[in-house]
Records
---
Amino acid sequence: MGVEALEIEALQILVESLISYKGRLVGTPAAHTYIRDKNEINIPKKANKDPLNYDQVFIRDFVPVALLFLVKGEFTIQNGKKEVAINGKEIVKNFLEVTLELHQQERSETFLNTGRVLMPASFKILKNKKGKEHLEPDFGQHAIARVTPVDSSLWWIILLRAYWKATGNTALVHQADFQEGIRLILELCFSDRFDREPTLLVPDGACMIDRRMGIYGYPLEIQVLFYAALRAADELLDRKNHNNKDILSAIQKRLGSLANHIRTEYWMDMDRLNQTYQYNVEEYGATAINKYNIYAASIPYANLDEWLPEDGGYLVGNIGPSQMDFRFFSVGNLMAIVCSLVTNDQSEKIMNLIERRHKELLGQMPFKICYPAIEDEDWRILTGCDPKNSPWSYHNGGSWPVLMWMWAAAARKLGQDAKEEEYMQFAKAAIEKAGKRLQKEEWPEYYDGKSGHLIGREARRHQTWTCAGYLLAKELMTPSGLDPLELIKFKEKTYAKN
Ligand code: GLC
C-alpha cells in the first residue's frame, strides 16, 4: 500500500467512526469498533470487543481529529460503497456547541457545587425508549478510578481558538454562552485554594495519564495546557464585554507569574543540575535558593549526568515540597514549545535532547509518553501495583503514536523561529516510517517495550487519535492547505519578573 492509500485509510476510519446527535455529526469515539469486511459491510471487530468507554467521544482524543478536520475543511471520501461529503469545520463547531451544552447542563444541575464547572472527559449519545437522543457526559463519575479530567476544559479553550483561527467566526466565539463558558472555566482555575503557587494543584490522573502514576500535585502537562488556555482565552474574550474585565486582568497577571515559574523552577539542564547538586537545605525565607527543600539524595545525579547532553535540557515533570519529579513527560515538553511557554533557547535544548536521546524517547515508535519507566518498589507505591502500567507499558514508559503531531508541531515551530531545518527533517523521516507500521498493525492505541517494538498488550485498534495524530503530523510537516501550526502555536513572549 502506498503512502497515499495509507492516508486515505486513516481518514476513512475517522469518517466512518463519526457519531451523530440530533442529525449533526459531533465527534469521533476513542476507538472505531467496526471495520469493513471484504463485502464492505460494517462488522464488529474482535480486537475491540469490550468497548469499556472507548466508544465515547473524549475531549482530549478529539483535539487532533478536530485540528485535522479544520485544515481539511470540506472534502469527500469513499465510505464503503458510498462517497460521503464532509464539512470538517462544521463538525468541529458542532462538537464545541455540544460540549458547551454539557458544561451548562452540569452547572445547572449542581449549581451549589461550584467546584464542578469542568468539561467532561468524554460523552456518549443515548436513546430513550421513544428513540429520543440525549447526551451522557462522564465528568469522572463513571471513569475507571474516578479520575478528574482537568485537561478537558483547557483543551476545549485551546480548540475553540483553533476553530476561530480557521474560520474567523468571531460571532460564535463572542456569543454570551461561549464567553461565559470560557470565563467559568478560568474562574475555577483562579479560585481560592489551599495553595499559593501560580501553577494548578490537581489530583493524580487528571490529564492524558488518567491512572495513578505518581503525578499528583503540579504535573507539567496540566501547567502547560493551563498556560496555553490562558493565552487562548486572552484572544477569545471580548474586550468590549464588561463581564470580562476582571478575568482579563487576572489572565495577564497569571500568564507572567506562571511562565516565569515554569521557565525557572521546572527547567533542567547541565547548569541547573550542577546548581541543584550544590543546594543547601532547610533554608527559610525570601532569600532561599533551594525553595522546595529538595534533598540531593532524591535526585538520580549519576543517571542524569550521563543522560543529559551538554546542549540539551527539558522541563521536569513536577515540583512540590521536597519533590522534584525528574521524569521526561512528552505532552508537557512538546506543547511547551508549541505554545511558547519555554523560550526559544529552551525549545532548542529540548529538541536537542530528543535528537541525542532518540533511542530512548522515540525508539521504534514515536513517542514515549514519559521516560524513564518507574520500576520495582516505586512502581508498587506510585501506581498501586497497576499491571496495565507495569514498567515500559501504557502510561509507564509506553509509546503513543498520537504524540507525533505534537512533535511535528514543535519541530516545525522551531524550524520557523530558529531557522533550523534539522529538527524537522529528523521528525519527518521517523514519522513516515511509523505510518507504514501503524497501517500494518491497524492503528494501535499504544506500544510497549523499552524501544516500542511491541503492540500494547491491551491496546485498542483503529484508535482515532492514532489515525489523526499521524495525519496531522503529516499536514504539519507539509501543509497541503490551511497550515495547522497557525491554529495551535503561540508567539514567544517575555514577562517582567516581580
Ligand atoms: C486512556 C488514555 C486517555 C484517553 C482514553 C481514550 O484512558 O489514558 O488519555 O483519553 O484512553 O482514548
---
Amino acid sequence: MKFEAIAVENIPLIQKGDDLPLIICENMELQDRDIVIIASTVVAKAEGETFRLKDLIPGEKALEIAAKNGQDPRFVQAVLDRSRELLVEVPFMLAITHAGHTCVNAGVDNSNIEGDFLLNTPGDPDASAARLGERLEKLSGKKLSVIVTDTNGRAFKIGQTGVAIGIYRIKPIKRWIGEKDLFGKVLEITEEAVADELAGAANLLMGEGAGGTPVIIIRGLDYYCEVDACIKETYRPEEMDIIKKGLRYLQNK
Ligand code: GDP
Ligand code: MN
Ligand code: MN
C-alpha cells in the first residue's frame, strides 16, 4: 500500500482575483481522484480577505478584552468581527468563526503576507472549496476532491498541524463502526478524521514558512465521493460538546 504527496511548483505570490485553479492546472497534470489540498492563506489572498489594523476602530468590547489579554485592541476587534463567540479571551483568543470552525484568533494571521497586512481565513471555506473544486474539474476534465486547510493548535498537545476547514467531494469522516478488528471484535466508536489526516500529511510539504508550496496533490488514495460533503458535518453538536461547555463555564465564572 502507498500513496503520493506532490507539491505543485511555480505558484506565484497570490493576489486578489487570481484564478487559483488555472494556476494549479498550468503547473500540474491532474489525474482522476486526485485530492487537491490548498492552504487557506492563498484562498484568502485570492478572495481579497486582507486588511490592515490601522483601518480598524476598536469597539467597547474589544477594548475591554484587550485590557485583559494585552493584545492590540484593533486586532481584538478583527477577531471579534470574524467570530460568533469567543470561548477564551485570556491568555489567547479562542474563537468560533461565523462558519463554525473553532480556532485561535478566528484564523486571523499575519504570516506569509506582505507589510502590515493581515489575512482572514475564507468566510465560508466549504463554499470556497466547492468553487475551487468545480473550476478545477472543469479545467482538467478530471474527478477531483479539494481540501482547504489551515494550521491549528491542539488543545492537549504542543505543536500545530494542518486541519481541514473546507472540503469538496470528499467525505471528511471514515466510519469504522460495525467493522471488525484483527480479532473479530466489532468496532463501536471509531470514526477516522480522514480530511484532517490528509491536511496534516499535506502540511508536511507545505511547511509554515517561506516554502512557497501552498498546494499539494495527494494521489493514490480513493476518497472521492459524488455526494455533497461539507466540513460543517464534523463539528460536534452543541449538546455533546463538553469541552465548549466547560470553557463557557470558566468564562462566566
Ligand atoms: P496556512 O496554513 O493556510 O495559514 O498557510 P501558511 O502561511 O502556513 O503557508 C502555507 C504554505 O503556503 C507555505 O509553504 C507558504 O510559503 C506558502 N504560501 C503562502 N502564501 C503564498 C503565496 O502567495 N504564494 C506561494 N507560492 N506560496 C504561498
Ligand atoms: Mn493560517
Ligand atoms: Mn500553515
